[in-house]
């Protein structure tokens, strides 16, 4: 992957950080504060319109931890511009992550205050990782959570990611394709995402292809003969119903050539009304197996409306609202120190208080298999239910190979199926209230005494 200037992407560079991380690292090292520390990444509260979130981005976070380095050029730049001591610069030049990571598996449903990821390492090292870890985990979690709502709204009808062109940069477009497929989308229009992640790739035609021809029917025939496999024609460049009749008229001749019209796409107008009219035209022409694909400014609300109206739309392409998560583009996400030098630490700022200590989430399910309760407690607790955070890295090394993305997708589907019905709704309901164990209240009192000392 390259930047706009053609330079290699700097995603593994530890200079891809907020400068204050480097300033704090310098001060930690200068004052001998290099003991063991644990930081946890979590979401303080869910945004409006979100009854739950889906954890995503762990794979890229672990890749970053394995490969993050300061190059010789990075160190030279820091020496000239950052006013760091020689001791700090040497620590950066020698940087290798040798710590531990515990995390929610990708695809896990989670709620406010529950850690997605915990990093345990020396204080300067764990601190330095903050910015990029939030950057990687936050974005894919935002998109996966949006995609999950779309999947629930579609009620089994396939969805395809059309969002690269409106994504906020190349990395965002690629990772949005990954996060949406993980959450249940059926494919992507982004070719590089298909190559990199093994996601099924789809593509039809643009209006410009039709406009480039003198006659719409000529555009259809030329495209069909060049792209005979899984042929889908775009109908709304001029008049949708007229284009549908042209497609029917041409389909019989193309069939004689061994080319079948697999589908048609509607990209504008009243999709509900047009889908019924186009379905009628296709069926009358004997094309009962030709699918109708809808796109054009769709989000979960519009998809739900079309599904609830039982329209004959077979699948949906979703772009801008997915890759930008336009209704909730950011989460109140934080990476906070919870333990240092064996003692609990917490933040007490109004509205931003944190629970101290290394933590675990225990999840209880009802007899129907649905989530009944989550309990947040200490990492060493033993409680009823399933412990949700699992060890993924020890001493800087992964404990097991990365799971196949298709397996993560299947796991995410089981997680969505475990949601109680009110939380599956697109309407904002009271989200699951996470129970806080008494042990955390006691740790908070201990941490407060440290902070007041």
TrEMBL record:
<keyword id="KW-0436">Ligase</keyword>
<keyword id="KW-0328">Glycosyltransferase</keyword>
<feature type="domain" description="Nicotinate phosphoribosyltransferase N-terminal">
    <location>
        <begin position="15"/>
        <end position="137"/>
    </location>
</feature>
<dbReference type="Pfam" id="PF04095">
    <property type="entry name" value="NAPRTase"/>
</dbReference>
<feature type="domain" description="Nicotinate/nicotinamide phosphoribosyltransferase">
    <location>
        <begin position="159"/>
        <end position="337"/>
    </location>
</feature>
<dbReference type="InterPro" id="IPR013785">
    <property type="entry name" value="Aldolase_TIM"/>
</dbReference>
<dbReference type="InterPro" id="IPR040727">
    <property type="entry name" value="NAPRTase_N"/>
</dbReference>
<dbReference type="GO" id="GO:0004516">
    <property type="term" value="F:nicotinate phosphoribosyltransferase activity"/>
</dbReference>
<protein>
    <recommendedName>
        <fullName>Nicotinate phosphoribosyltransferase</fullName>
        <ecNumber>6.3.4.21</ecNumber>
    </recommendedName>
</protein>
<comment type="pathway">
    <text>Cofactor biosynthesis; NAD(+) biosynthesis; nicotinate D-ribonucleotide from nicotinate: step 1/1.</text>
</comment>
<comment type="function">
    <text>Catalyzes the first step in the biosynthesis of NAD from nicotinic acid, the ATP-dependent synthesis of beta-nicotinate D-ribonucleotide from nicotinate and 5-phospho-D-ribose 1-phosphate.</text>
</comment>
<dbReference type="InterPro" id="IPR041525">
    <property type="entry name" value="N/Namide_PRibTrfase"/>
</dbReference>
<dbReference type="InterPro" id="IPR006405">
    <property type="entry name" value="Nic_PRibTrfase_pncB"/>
</dbReference>
<keyword id="KW-0662">Pyridine nucleotide biosynthesis</keyword>
<dbReference type="GO" id="GO:0016757">
    <property type="term" value="F:glycosyltransferase activity"/>
</dbReference>
<dbReference type="Pfam" id="PF17767">
    <property type="entry name" value="NAPRTase_N"/>
</dbReference>
<keyword id="KW-0808">Transferase</keyword>
<dbReference type="InterPro" id="IPR007229">
    <property type="entry name" value="Nic_PRibTrfase-Fam"/>
</dbReference>
<comment type="similarity">
    <text>Belongs to the NAPRTase family.</text>
</comment>
<dbReference type="InterPro" id="IPR036068">
    <property type="entry name" value="Nicotinate_pribotase-like_C"/>
</dbReference>
<keyword id="KW-0597">Phosphoprotein</keyword>
């Amino acid at each position: 992957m390259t930047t706009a200037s053609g330079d290699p992407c700097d995603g593994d560079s530890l200079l891809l950080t907020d400068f204050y991380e480097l300033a704090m690292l310098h001060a930690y090292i200068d004052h001998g504060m290099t003991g063991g520390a644990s930081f946890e990444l979590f979401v303080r509260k869910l945004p409006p319109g979100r009854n739950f979130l889906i954890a995503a981005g762990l794979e890229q976070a672990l890749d970053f931890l394995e490969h993050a380095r300061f190059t010789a050029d990075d160190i030279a730049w820091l020496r000239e511009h950052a006013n760091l001591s020689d001791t700090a610069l040497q620590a950066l030049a020698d940087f290798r992550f040798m710590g531990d990571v515990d995390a929610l598996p990708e695809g896990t449903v989670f709620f406010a205050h529950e850690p997605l990821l915990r990093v345990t390492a020396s204080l300067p090292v764990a601190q330095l990782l903050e910015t990029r870890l939030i950057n990687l985990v936050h974005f894919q979690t935002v998109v996966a959570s949006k995609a999950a709502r779309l999947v629930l709204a579609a009620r089994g009808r396939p969805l395809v990611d059309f969002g690269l062109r409106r994504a906020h940069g190349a990395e965002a477009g690629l990772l949005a394709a990954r996060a949406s497929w993980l959450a249940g989308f059926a494919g992507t229009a982004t070719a590089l995402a298909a190559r990199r992640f093994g996601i099924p790739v789809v593509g039809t035609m643009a209006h410009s292809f039709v406009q480039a021809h003198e006659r719409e029917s000529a555009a259809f025939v030329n495209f069909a003969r060049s792209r005979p496999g899984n042929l889908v024609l775009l109908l709304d460049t001029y008049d949708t119903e007229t284009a549908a009749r042209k497609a029917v008229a041409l389909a019989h001749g193309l069939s004689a050539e061994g080319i079948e019209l697999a589908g048609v796409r509607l990209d504008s107008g009243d999709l509900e009304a047009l889908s019924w009219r186009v379905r009628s035209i296709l069926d009358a022409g004997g094309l009962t197996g030709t699918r109708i694909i809808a796109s054009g400014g769709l989000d979960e609300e519009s998809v739900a409306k079309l599904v609830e109206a039982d329209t004959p739309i077979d699948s949906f392409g979703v772009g801008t609202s997915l890759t930008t998560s336009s209704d909730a583009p950011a989460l109140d996400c934080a990476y906070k120190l919870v333990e240092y030098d064996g003692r609990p630490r917490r933040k007490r700022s109004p509205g931003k208080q944190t629970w101290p200590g290394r933590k675990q989430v225990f999840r209880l399910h009802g007899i129907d298999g649905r989530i009944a309760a989550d309990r947040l407690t200490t990492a060493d607790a033993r409680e009823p239910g399933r412990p949700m955070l699992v060890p993924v890295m020890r001493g800087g090394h992964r404990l097991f190979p990365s799971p196949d993305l298709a397996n993560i997708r299947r796991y995410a589907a089981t997680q969505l199926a475990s949601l109680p019905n009110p939380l599956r709704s697109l309407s904002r309901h009271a989200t699951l209230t996470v129970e806080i164990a008494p042990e955390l209240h006691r740790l908070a009192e201990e941490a407060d005494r440290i902070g007041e000392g």
